[in-house]
Design brief:
Length: about 240
């Protein structure tokens, strides 16, 4: 079973940033050039890169598309999202060299439309981002950069998409995102049992190499690594060696 280590770069106004629990008021800005940072991850052996347009996620436009296109031009396989609201946005990202488009808010709000895209473009061209916030015994699915509540739940949509052939699912426990508190392993064990056909990417809270090993043992097929890499807790090479 393939397990993929995926470094992440979050973009806001063309700069590398991280948020805590998706809160735009809790932003840390890093003094890295995003393209140079992506190259360093590739040189360390990473084959995939996860790019998030935070301006787009909240505002609904692909504000950082030029940065994404420049990074994709350097040869890494990129999955990118944030600001995808229509098929024209999907095509713009594909035209920019993105290998997989990440669909978050639209995957929650317009599942029939997204299922049609899966059938039209192919299931390998998309990663569904069903990021969740545990609340009142349910896995809720906030949208619009995690700022708006939605009625659909992870328990409902993950099996629905699996039944329609989806292959890649990114799932972040929002409470843990950027907090360096470790993955929510119960979440990934649940998904491994409920939707075994989906290759789940674990995200939110990784702090050590042991967390990566634990996510794999819990059934995840990949990990998204953000703040821990930016702050030097371990390297991409060390993560790949896990």
């Amino acid at each position: 079973m393939t397990f993929t280590v995926i470094p992440a770069i979050d973009l806001r106004s063309g700069r590398v940033v991280r948020l805590k629990q998706g809160d735009y008021a809790q932003q840390t800005t890093y003094d890295f050039d995003p393209r140079a940072l992506a190259r360093s991850y590739a040189e360390a052996g990473a084959h995939w890169l996860h790019l998030v347009d935070l301006d787009g996620a909240r505002g609904g436009s692909l504000d950082n598309l030029s940065v994404i296109e420049a990074i994709a031009a350097d040869g890494m396989r990129v999955q990118a999202g944030g600001g995808v609201r229509a098929e024209a946005d999907v095509r713009r990202l594909f035209d920019a060299g993105v290998a997989r488009v990440v669909l978050g808010s639209l995957a929650i709000r317009e599942p029939d439309l997204v299922a049609a895209w899966l059938a039209s473009y192919g299931v390998e061209r998309f990663t569904l981002a069903l990021d969740t916030l545990p609340k009142d015994g349910a896995w809720t699915l906030p949208s619009a950069g995690w700022t708006e509540a939605e009625s659909r739940t992870l328990d409902e949509l993950a099996p629905w998409y699996a039944a329609r052939g989806a292959k890649h699912l990114l799932c972040t426990d929002i409470q843990r995102d950027g907090m360096l508190g470790g993955f929510n392993l119960d979440l990934y064990r649940y998904l491994a049992g409920a939707v075994p056909s989906l290759a789940v990417q674990a995200s939110g809270g990784v702090r050590s190499l042991d967390d990566i090993r634990a996510a794999r043992e819990a059934g995840a097929r990949g990990v998204i690594l953000g703040r821990a890499l930016l702050e030097g807790r371990f390297s991409v090479a060390e993560a790949l060696a896990c």
